[in-house]
Amino acid sequence: MTRVPSKPITAADAYPLIFAVIRRIPRGKVASYAQIAYAAGLPGRARMVGRALADAGGAGPKLPWHRVINAQGRIALPRSSEAYVEQKSRLIAEGVLFEGDRVSFTRYGWKRGSAPVLD
DNA sequence: TTCCTGACAATGC
DNA sequence: AGCATTGCCAGGA
């Protein structure tokens, strides 16, 4: 049979998976791009998660895109952009506090299936 | 098809 | 704690 080396993952295939994962992030929690990619069965495709959100561009109101931040705990957008302010305020509104310009994964990181951190 | 870009990330200094 | 480098992978020109 005509052999196919590996399945080239296209946006059409991946986006639904990615969005599905993002929709599972609980309110008041955050997840990194890499974490979402992994959970969506796309390990190593962190950049694709970013692309998916960029393409969505707020097109999916149901999507809690603001709960997605980079591995450094920072918002992956220019400080000067509108989206940055929007994302930060949304997070704060959910009780996610910033330490300077970053969020603590230890406190707000989404750990699938684990109990909330009560400190 | 090559080259450049990007809501990323791990590593090294 | 930053900053630069390198790896990564899909899109778009």
TrEMBL record:
GO terms for biological process: DNA repair. SUPFAM superfamilies: Methylated DNA-protein cysteine methyltransferase, C-terminal domain (SSF46767). Keywords: DNA damage. The keyword DNA damage applies. CDD domains: ATase (cd06445). It comes from the Bacteria. Gene3D superfamilies: Winged helix-like DNA-binding domain superfamily/Winged helix DNA-binding domain. InterPro entries: ATL_DNA_repair, MethylDNA_cys_MeTrfase_DNA-bd, MethylDNA_cys_MeTrfase_DNAb, WH-like_DNA-bd_sf. Residues 18-96 form the Methylated-DNA-[protein]-cysteine S-methyltransferase DNA binding domain. One of its GO terms (molecular function) is catalytic activity. This is O(6)-alkylguanine repair protein YbaZ. It comes from Panacagrimonas perspica. The lineage of its organism: Bacteria, Pseudomonadati, Pseudomonadota, Gammaproteobacteria, Nevskiales.
